[in-house]
From TrEMBL:
Originating organism: Proteiniclasticum ruminis
Name of a matching Pfam family: Alpha-amylase
Glycosyl hydrolase family 13 catalytic domain sequence ranges: 192-569
Family statement drawn from the similarity comment of this UniProt entry: Belongs to the glycosyl hydrolase 13 family.
GO terms classed as biological process: carbohydrate metabolic process
Family matches, as InterPro entries: GH, GH13_cat_dom, Glyco_hydro_b, Ig-like_fold, Ig_E-set, PulA_typeI
Record-given protein name: Pullulanase
Length: 670
């Protein structure tokens, strides 16, 4: 293999390094060598461009590059730079340049030379870019804060279980013709208050406030590759193909050509939600890049940031590649990036896409770093992968390993499929469709922690309690992926009436919103959102993906039911127990062992009240014996409220088919 020598003055002691192009096979071992990690990895805090009083400092980590130039352009479209600076080799594999302040408000690219191969990139640490993210842009972000942006904060989150998370795509919220929102499909759509549909029911931001959710999880808002930001109106994508990790996506901005527009408008979105009492969670996709070879990572340090085998990308993401979080500089990049989003944009939490690809140690370091600047940050992710990874599962933060990092949660697919049926087999129903799966539902009710009354041999995908505390269990029945809840229930219950499907849907999220752990709602589920059977709408039309605000009016009774449920969860702390010990002590299952019926009591840790919660997933009414007491009914098949709907002193109650009941007493019961 051809070799090259790095001079002592640049990188320390003499080192013989493998020729990196066009053959990548020798790189993996070298990147993982003691020499590389001691001499060619950089731990400084200045890989983001620094705007000083009298100059701009630019530093790029490119240890394998023979030369790096920094090129300035007058426009994003310009092909030829008007000025080129040669960067100086510096410490630990970095290249350094000090620019005059006159360079501000110009576009730029790094020209990275790897022997005979030259690549052009805005660099992994770009924080401001031109249209379609092709060139970086020199701009101090201090100039992009909306007025009072740093004044408004999300309410303090005392514990993850106090959150009610609402997942929504930026475009979906406002694009429908009946949204009454002017900035349709844009960040600024979240800033318009008082909007109503043609029937007079609230939409957009006002709807979120009315519903009572505590956190809004945004599908990817970093700069992604899928859309032409100047393309035809109506192009759509979820955005799970990262291009520039530290820049907002431009297609949601009013003017994608203005590099500052996307930044100011995303900050306006965040400020709007903060002003109205909601936190903002960012969906992050550090597990893969939109492409391997053409990614900014690979252009800068070939193959370093990705896992590989035999010089080829491995693919645990099912998207063509997977990143190598266990490598020192990839770990640093993820942590630096997350800290940037918290400190610059005031993000309140992160949802990690395919978190099971990331190594556990990196995720542990992520939590430590983020809690040092925001102790109440909310962190969770998908505890699985999209394929096989060369890094052993024991070293990755898959669901079964989640207890090793108690401050990070994972999506609970056991309760998801226990409630509604198998996520990938449309015809397979679950508990709310009279198909059993009682133990998987009980497992979710107890927040995935140990409980003596759960039979772990009968759980769908797990044979042990994987959560150390209930805040690690993200309980849900639907998300952007796969069928909507209503579409799934319709597919699994052919021939059932719309009224029956409505009852099943209400029962499904009644279980979620009363379970121990963190409840997670897919936008529109509260008015029976349909995507017309599209199970993978990542690039489908607005007709499929838009939140249909007219449908809210048609199902306003369901919306009111959800509103009451969320209020109940907030009103009664027993639904939000903090520890496994509390759950074991205060939650007790009782009643008949019927596959389609679950009932339990939930005692207030302070002894002020006892709740009785019952779920009937069967197609027939169910009569349940209850302890003798004065009971206030807070939820039944039709209504949910923090005030009593009706009261009873009877020793039994009857649950209608596909329904729930919640009762409360302040009497002492055994």
């Amino acid at each position: 293999m051809a070799e090259k020598i790095f001079p002592t003055s640049v990188h320390g002691e003499l080192a013989t390094l493998p020729k990196i192009l066009p053959n990548f096979e020798g790189l993996t071992d070298f990147y993982d060598s003691e020499y590389f990690n001691e001499n060619l990895t950089y731990d400084g805090k200045d890989l983001f461009i620094q705007y000083e009083k009298d100059h701009i400092q630019v530093r790029l980590w490119a240890p394998m590059a023979s030369k790096v130039n920094f090129q300035l352009y007058t426009s994003a479209e310009e092909k030829t730079p008007f000025l080129t600076y040669e960067m100086e080799p510096s410490e630990k594999g970095t290249h350094l340049l000090k620019l005059p302040l006159m360079a501000i408000n110009h576009f730029y690219l790094f020209e990275v030379h790897h022997d005979e191969v030259v690549t052009y990139t805005p660099g992994p640490y770009a924080t401001c870019v031109g249209v379609n993210g092709e060139k970086g842009y020199l701009l101090s972000l201090k100039e992009t804060d909306p007025e009072n942006f740093r004044t408004y904060k999300a309410p303090l989150l005392e514990n993850p279980v106090d959150a009610v998370v609402y997942e929504v795509h930026v475009r979906d919220l406002s694009i429908h013709e009946d949204s009454d929102i002017e900035a349709k499909g844009k960040y600024l759509g979240f800033t318009e208050d008082g909007t109503r549909n043609i029937k007079g029911h609230t939409t957009g931001l006002s709807h979120l406030k009315e519903l009572g959710v505590t956190h809004v999880q945004l599908l990817p808002v970093f700069d992604f590759n899928a859309l032409d930001e100047l393309g035809e109106d109506g192009a759509y994508n979820w955005g799970y193909d990262p291009l520039n990790y530290n820049v907002p996506e431009g297609s949601y901005a009013i003017d994608p050509k203005d590099p500052a527009s996307r930044i100011k408008e995303l900050k306006s979105l965040i400020m709007s939600l903060h002003k109205n009492g909601m936190g903002v969670i960012m969906d992050v996709v550090y597990n893969h890049t939109y492409d391997g070879v053409t990614s900014n990572f690979h252009k800068t340090v070939p193959l370093y940031f990705h896992r590989s085998s035999g010089g080829m990308f491995t693919d645990a993401s099912a998207c063509g590649n997977e990143t190598a979080s266990e490598r020192r500089m990839m770990r640093k990049f993820i942590i630096d990036s997350l800290l940037f989003w918290v400190e610059e944009y005031q993000m309140d939490g992160f949802r990690f896409d395919l978190m099971g690809i990331h190594d556990t140690e990196t995720m542990r370091e992520i939590e430590k770093a983020l809690r040092s600047v925001k102790p109440d940050i909310l962190l969770y992710g998908e505890g699985w992968t999209g394929g096989n990874s060369p890094l052993h599962e024991d070293l990755r933060l898959v669901k079964r390993n989640i207890s090793q990092v108690p401050g990070i949660g994972a999506f609970n697919d056991d309760i998801r499929d226990g409630i509604k049926g198998h996520v990938f087999f449309n015809e397979k129903g679950g508990f709310v469709s009279s198909r059993g799966q009682r133990e998987s539902v009980k497992f979710g009710i107890t927040g995935a922690v140990y409980h003596p009354q759960v039979n772990y041999r009968k759980i769908l995908y797990t044979d042990f309690p994987w959560a150390q505390n209930p805040g690690q269990s993200i309980n849900y029945v639907s998300a952007h992926d796969n069928l909507t809840l209503y579409d799934k229930l319709e597919a699994a219950n052919k021939g059932k009436s719309k009224e029956v499907l409505k009852d099943m849907a209400k029962l499904a999220n009644t279980i979620v919103l009363t379970s121990q752990g963190v409840p997670f709602l897919h936008a529109g589920v509260e008015f029976l959102r349909t995507k017309y059977g599209d199970h993978n709408s990542y690039r489908s039309s607005d007709k499929v993906n838009a939140l249909n605000w007219s449908q809210k009016s048609r199902n306003i009774d369901v919306v009111q039911y959800y509103k009451g449920l969320i209020a109940l969860r907030k009103e009664y702390p027993a639904f939000r127990l903090r520890t496994a010990e509390e759950i074991g002590k205060y939650l007790s299952f009782y009643g008949p062992e019927d596959r389609n019926f679950i009932s339990y009591t939930l005692k207030d840790p302070h002894g002020f009240y006892t709740l009785l919660v019952a779920f009937n997933g069967g197609e027939n009414s169910f009569k349940l014996r209850i302890p003798s007491a004065h009971w206030d009914v807070l939820l039944d098949k039709d209504d949910a409220d923090i005030l009593p709907l009706w009261s009873t002193k009877e020793t039994s109650v009857t649950l209608k088919p596909y329904s729930a009941m919640i009762l409360m007493t302040r009497d002492s019961i055994s």
